[in-house]
Specification:
Radius of gyration: 20 Å
Number of domains: 1
Length: 315
């Protein structure tokens, strides 16, 4: 049954009297994740759900949310940014210091890229503008902007093949050549992700850079791919608004999260979760669990993702 379906419930007491009342069925996340050949993750910056969904500043993302799947119960885990990016890739919050770099905070924890490698699959981190390695310094971008390494979490992990961190221009090449990896992290610079600009800039970036991917065979009928678009945290105007190293606290505020796939439900709005208990709402660990299950990966070492349910209600 669909979430919110109405039923008549008949109840008989010991005297034999029967009453009938309407009841609403709440369906929790259930089901099995489909398996995908490719999963893509894109993260925008510092914008509340109320300022993105159905906003005149984000018509493209709103059109995708309305056409495909939208979570209406997704809360980021913490403020500021860095912990949320860590949660999406490792299922843990290692720091809330946005000044930490791969040099000051090298991480050997299990992570999504490491699990992809263990499974014999492929991944790439497509980076706009820069990166901490010589191979991706001075990368081109749709618009000039600052590279923030805290928005590029795979840079911090020491137990992965760093040759897979490449310039964003390689993304269009791999799409054209049908050589996309199994997992792709797409990292716009600080202008294009909205951090130093506006949500409309990020929306335009999505249309320009992600539009061709969605027009490809990977996202048409019979396609084999999943795209997740989310935001790291809200603009700190919501409640709660706090800093924590514990997953599932909702401290980063409510943000928009959209799942797009030819295998997904259309025009779907997920209401899984209760904001009175943030352990039931979707968060970064939910995204990580979803990616891992979509690619058939082990989740035991992925922190909070080991116990979170995947976002299987979208399928």
């Amino acid at each position: 049954a669909d979430n919110g379906a109405q039923f008549r419930v008949a109840v008989s007491n010991v005297a034999g009297n029967v009453t009938s009342n309407a009841a609403t069925l709440t369906v929790n996340a259930a089901g099995t994740m489909p398996q995908f050949a490719h999963v893509f993750l894109v993260v925008g910056e510092n914008t509340s759900y109320s300022k993105t969904y159905n906003s005149s500043n984000m018509p493209y993302l709103t059109s995708l949310a309305n056409q495909y799947g939208l979570s209406t119960m997704y809360w980021a885990d913490t403020h500021p940014s860095i912990g949320n990016y860590e949660g999406m890739t490792a299922g843990k919050i290692f720091t809330n210091n946005d000044s930490d770099t791969p040099s000051s905070l090298p991480l050997s924890s299990d992570n999504i890229a490491a699990e992809v490698e263990k499974a014999g699959k492929t991944w790439k981190d497509y980076v706009e503008t820069g990166g901490s390695t010589a191979a991706v310094s001075g990368c081109s971008a749709l618009n000039s902007g600052t590279y923030y390494v805290r928005h590029d979490p795979l840079e911090y992990y020491t137990n992965i093949n760093r040759a897979n961190i490449v310039c964003f221009s390689q993304f269009a090449t791999d799409l054209a050549n049908n050589t996309l990896p199994n997992f792709a992290y797409l990292a716009p610079n600080g202008h294009d992700d909205g951090h130093d600009s506006s949500e409309s800039t990020f929306d335009s970036w999505l249309k320009t850079e992600i539009g061709p991917l969605l027009a490809s065979s990977h996202f048409q009928a019979g396609g084999d791919s999943l795209l997740i678009i989310t935001f790291d945290e809200d603009d700190k105007s919501g409640s709660p608004s706090c800093s924590t190293t514990t997953m599932g606290q909702g401290c980063g505020g409510e943000v928009e999260t959209v799942l797009i796939s030819p295998l997904g439900k259309l025009a779907y709005k997920s209401t899984v979760g209760d904001p009175a208990n943030f352990n039931t709402t979707y968060d970064e660990a939910s995204i990580l669990r979803t990616i891992a299950e979509a690619l058939g990966l082990n989740t035991a070492g992925l922190g909070g993702a080991a116990t979170r349910l995947p976002m299987a209600d979208f399928f």
